[in-house]
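Translate sequence into structure tokens.
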Amino acid sequence: MWLIVIHRRGLRFVLLGMEVLAIALQVEIALRRRPLERVFADASQARARGRLASDIAPATLDRAIRTAYRVLPFEPTCLKHALIFCRVRRRRGLSAELRIGVQKEDGVFGAHAWVEDGAGNVLTDPLEGFSPLPLRRASTPDQRASD
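Result follows.
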């Protein structure tokens, strides 16, 4: 199967897919074991590591995440997708801001997560009608001690 993917998409896409798989596992574990505030903070504080290629198109990353979830035993959600997207971009030194929005339509509450760059451009799929919530940054133990 991987040989077919390499032939169709190229080795760089396969390597990106492997990175996405590893980060998807980290995200899944974090969502099960850590407070959401900390998970959100981790996504927004990921730092560039090594010499990763920084020229990754949002559509390519989106495709890699969707492909990875075909082999993972976890249910994909917009939140997991957005967290993975943020971490991969930030590891490359690219801007990525997690956004969570809510809406109430016909008495039904809904929520959605997406990613924007530093200029407010949407990088993943926002749904129309969702109002973004302000995400409060998690404080570090040092910051809490000084309060």
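Note: The chain has one domain: 2-146.
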